[in-house]
Amino acid sequence: MDLFDQAGAASRAAASRAAQLRDELAAHDHAYYVLDAPTVPDAEYDRLFRELQAIEAAHPELRTADSPTQRVGGRPLAQFPAVRHRVPMLSIRTETDTEASGAAAFDARVRRELGLGAQDPELEYATELKFDGLAISLRYERGVLVQAATRGDGETGEDVTSNVRTVKAIPLRLRGAGPEVIEIRGEIYMRRDDFETLNRHQAERGEKNFVNPRNAAAGSIRQLDPAIAARRPLSFFAYGLGDTQGWTVPATHAEVLDAIAAFGVPVCAHRAVVRGAAGLAGFHARIAALRDGLPFDIDGVVYKVNTLALQQRLGFVTREPRWAVAHKYPAQEALTLLRDIEVQVGRTGALTPVARLEPVFVGGVTVTNATLHNQDEIDRKDVRIGDWVVVRRAGDVIPEVVGPVLERRAGELPRFRLLERFPLCPVCGSHVVRGEDEVVARCSGGLFCPAQRKQALLHFASRRAMDIEGLGDKLVEQLVDAAIVKTPVDLYRLGVLALVNLERMGEKSAQNLLAAIEKSRSTTLARFIFALGIRNVGEATARDLARHFGSLDALMAADELALQQVPDVGPIVARSIAEFLAEPHNREVIEQLRAAGVHWEEGAPAVAPAGRLAGKTFVLTGTLPTLSRDEAKALIEAQGGKVAGSVSKKTNYVVAGEEAGSKLAKAEELGVPIIDEAGLQALLAA
Ligand code: IVH
Question: Is the Cβ–Cβ distance between 392 and 379 less than 8 Å?
Fold first, then answer.
């Protein structure tokens, strides 16, 4: 073989490998994005993708338009070119009667138009969902996607091919032998979970939020820079046909959708062929029950006369076919006036701002309150008292304020500041706090606040806290609801008489419970601290605090700085403890508990342990070459060091081995020194 032949053979091999990779990647895309059933791990997909990229880089002539590497290729545009639709893109007439009678009206109209009488058989309808996104026409020539256009005015749309190519669910090449020409029409939409993620990212980047998935989808497709569109998580469902050439169009709409699905284009599984008005109403009701559980928003359902020949006979009036109708559901969103914002205190002390609304009928019920989630959400949406707001109620979900209608805001309205308006808990009067990095504001009266009573008592009595056997949630529920117990102190004042009248509580169980309460009077300082239920103070921290301070008085006298001297107590934990102890209601309960005879052995404050690693905190991550985790821990502790479970600014060293994960990343982020096993051995031997 001479050099020329060799080169020829090499590029033939490259060409066939490239073709094979394109097919394989397209099959994986289909499995992942259309069937929702991935066939290979991401890493394998990436490997194939990079191999194809490498071949194409070496042989640019092998780069085809349908190559998966070419999804994001286009340059930013100044504007979208216009596209004239060969078959106009119609819209659908909407039936606003959301009851079964709406379906019956459509069936009656179609029958009348077709000249059918009462004795004629029922008509067959294809029923599907009305997706809430942006209509798109995809033109495939000989199986390859050549153009994607928006609907525009129905006659002329915009050429958004570069952006649509980035939608992974849309195949760049149809499966099997594609017809000469086929235009597949459908809806580009965004899933709700993708929408939430996108908005989170938008917020992180300081960019503006999208109001709803439909706007996000439409905005993404109408982006002039395909690189931006490529980062938007879009999906697609086909629902019809445009122009076709060289293809035998099936006889029914349902078969058309089957054929489109066989081409590898996503078609929603929630569709059916039904008969007559009752069949339509049945589908409407079935989807109503499913609606809130769907991963995407819908705007209703669509009924289409199934037989294409009948569709032809029916024709259309002003852009709306007589053979189709959109049947809506009761609106899930409504407009109303935001009268005031109040707060609700949850079991954990979290304060949730609640909108007090001018009553409005939405989703089938009258809504007067809706959640505003937290201060950040209020700021993000810029909701102010006095605004006209959109309220949304989906199924059983708590109604929420979607956002204000800024155009209707009359003049300047003051911003709402939760901490200014509610410096004290509306339930118990304890002060309200909000950590620097925290979204939620909380009532600090954990031991005292009626809203937190049940939670606080359950925690207080739990096995690793005061260990009061038999005091479970059923009993706590009864004791609190009957106002027998308000704070943990009341437990130590209980008598048999108060208990025997409770449900499922005989003399014997009452005696047992009292004995368990009695027994808990004698405890340890660590358990007692843990039992207080201070935010961010778990069992281990409680133990550290007990060891460090030796007595409750010393702990109660400590300020934030003194608290931070405790190994593993950083500014956030120190702040939680200080806030809890600063609340007079909590101190009162603590004093009352002591007065009620709850006691423990107190010691002197811990002296700093001796050893080379005294006062040093380590975090272990990954697999070390020779030491097991327990061995490494024992060696560190033998030298007076401490091993903590998570990395904070107070960590002195992170010891990282093979396959270290997020702790390593955290250490890098915080600038904590990272050492390996050899480094640890050196410290131990120093
Ligand atoms: S068929 C027959 N089917 O609704 C007329 N449209 O108002 C052609 N839409 O612009 C449309 N789901 O974006 C059809 N299952 C569905 C649909 C659907 C959503 C949208 C489509 C169109 C608008 C019509």
Answer: no
Q: Kindly state the average pLDDT of the residues 427-438.
A: 88
Q: Convert the pLDDT of each residue in 244-253 to its tens digit.
A: 999 999 999 9
Which structure tokens are listed for 507? 């003399």
CATH number of 3-69: 1.10.287.610
* Cα–Cα dist 327/185, whole Å: 20
Residue 333 Cα to ligand 1 midpoint, Å, equals 21
Residues 533-563: tens digit of each pLDDT: 999 899 889 999 999 999 999 999 999 989 9
- The model's pTM is 0.59
Which superfamily, per CATH, for 105-328? DNA ligase/mRNA capping enzyme (3.30.470.30)
How far away, in angstroms, is 72 Cα from ligand 1 center? 27
Q: Are 74 and 226 spatial neighbours (Cβ–Cβ below 8 Å)?
A: yes
Ligand 1 atom nearest to 302, measured from its CA: 15
Closest atom of ligand 1 to CA, residue 129: 15
Helix (H) or strand (E) holding 303: strand 298-305
Q: Which helix (H) or strand (E) covers residue 272, if one does?
A: strand 272-275
Which residues are known to be catalytic?
130
Mean pLDDT in residue range 1-21: 81
Q: Ligand 1: which of 87, 89, 90, 91 to mutate, most ligand atoms within 8 Å of CB?
A: 91
Here the tokens at position 170 are: 């849309």
Ligand 1 centre from 275 Cα, in Å?
21
What is 333-421's CATH topology? OB fold (Dihydrolipoamide Acetyltransferase, E2P) (2.40.50)
Task: Tell me how far the alpha carbon of residue 216 lies from the centroid of ligand 1, in angstroms.
Answer: 18
Which pLDDT score is estimated for 2?
63
User: How would you write 374-421 as a 3-class SS string?
Assistant: CHHHHHHHCCCCCCEEEEECCCCCCCEEEEECHHHCCCCCCCCCHHHH
Mutate to test the pocket of ligand 1, among 187, 305, 329 (most ligand atoms within 8 A of CB): 187
For domain 450-595, the question of CATH label 3.40.50.300 is answered with no
Minimal CA–CA distance to 163: which of 149, 151, 175?
Answer: 149
Query: What's the 411 CA to ligand 1 centre distance in angstroms?
Result: 40
Query: Which residue ranges have their beta carbon within 6 Å of ligand 1?
Result: 90-92, 128, 130-131, 135, 151, 187, 239-240, 302, 321, 324
Query: In this structure, which residue's CA is closest to atom 14 in ligand 1?
Result: 239
Q: Residue 635 pLDDT more than 60?
A: yes
Which atom of ligand 1 lies at the shortest distance from residue 134's CA? 13
Residue nearest to atom 17 of ligand 1 (CA): 130
CA 423 vs CA 157, 344, 592: distances in Å: 55, 14, 26
Cβ atoms of 443 and 432 within 8 Å: the answer is yes
Q: How is the chain split into domains, by residue range?
A: 3-69, 105-328, 333-421, 450-595, 617-685
- Select from 85, 89, 92, 128 the residue to mutate for testing ligand 1; criterion: most ligand atoms less than 8 Å from CB: 92
**What's 617-685's CATH class?**
alpha beta
The tens digit of pLDDT for each residue in 149-201 reads: 999 989 999 999 999 999 999 999 999 988 999 999 999 999 999 998 998 88
Measured between alpha carbons, how far is 617 from 97 in angstroms, rounded to an integer? 68
